[in-house]
């Protein structure tokens, strides 16, 4: 039994690094002693999910009842797949809202913040996203913050792409302590940038 279950929800057109960066951080955190299980999931059963740069990923299963749900971005500037398509069909925002209502902490990387906004989770809260979506996010959020990571308790957002690694390291630190987060940061030869806005 683990203390924290994390699920990263994949959809056609998700940005690879938005999902795989945090996944690697969380997996390394487990190996460093964090009581954490991480799964790559989809909303419906499927054998493969195709990411924005055509990487195909085999998910571990479908969305369960995680303690932490992470939503990657990708595809905001294209309508046929990715975040914009996920918002238009409304299934992903509804599922995210259900997880939040059930008590999950919800986090986004990059334009995944647009899905959280569509789910109603960012109204009146500080948040950040990739620079290409700032104007769009401002129409949903009262307080768009120029930061790599924004922690508003049960909702966290990260800026573009590589900020997802900083987000995941912050979550390791917040949930399991600085020693584990620093060990993972050192192992991955990554240097966090900026401060977490809380």
Automatic annotation (TrEMBL):
Residues 8-173 form the DJ-1/PfpI domain. Coiled coil: none annotated. Pfam families: DJ-1_PfpI. Keywords: Lyase. Gene3D superfamilies: 3.40.50.880. Its EC number is 4.2.1.-. One of its GO terms (molecular function) is lyase activity. This is DJ-1/PfpI family protein.
